[in-house]
Design goal:
Helix content is 67%, strand content 0%. The chain contains three helices and no strands. The longest helix has 36 residues.
Amino acid sequence: MGSKVIPVRLNDDTLRLIEELVRLGIYSSRSEALRDLIRIGARHVRRIKVVAESVDKLFELESKEGDIPIQLRRALRRLIAERERF
């Protein structure tokens, strides 16, 4: 898989952050920092896409069945209780 060079505009705050990461030695160059940060962002976007597609499927099922296909009784309460442990 090849790579392409693309121009990108960054606001001053974002550029300062990238340059600070390079200055601290976390990345050896701005290009390396941007590549890594874009990869991290893309990974998160993929996860969001999976969730959004799943929600669409649930809405589709609800429309066909006339009811919510999955009942999660007391699930929100349990989720909140679990989150409070941390």
